[in-house]
Design a protein that fits this description.
two-stranded antiparallel ribbon, single chain, globular, 5 helices, four-stranded parallel sheet
Length: 124
Amino acid sequence: MLETRYKSPEELRFSIGEGKKVAIISCGACANLCDTGGVRGMNFIKGLVEDWGNRVVAARTAIACCPEPIMREVLETTVKGSGAEVLVVISCSAGVKTAVLCNPGMPVVAACDTLGPSSLIHQD
């Protein structure tokens, strides 16, 4: 499991821009266990984005963001046709990379920094 922390609000706001239609995909696996992803993380980022004057046109929590088949399904069923201009991915760098490799047709913005293997895992 990779540990994630939110980027600063200033960095995220700069990366998204102003007056954009935003799609959000949140990881239900590792990022959720780090309290950055899942439904709670999605709602948190959605609130920030809307407070900045952007409109969230699609939002979904995925079981995990790193497997390409899951990311492709989420993009196809949730993001495609939404009119989104930017995709915010709440996951570790693996999920962000997968989103980019799936070529969603819009800029991909990482909402989190990846810190490395989690200290939440007990190692003997």
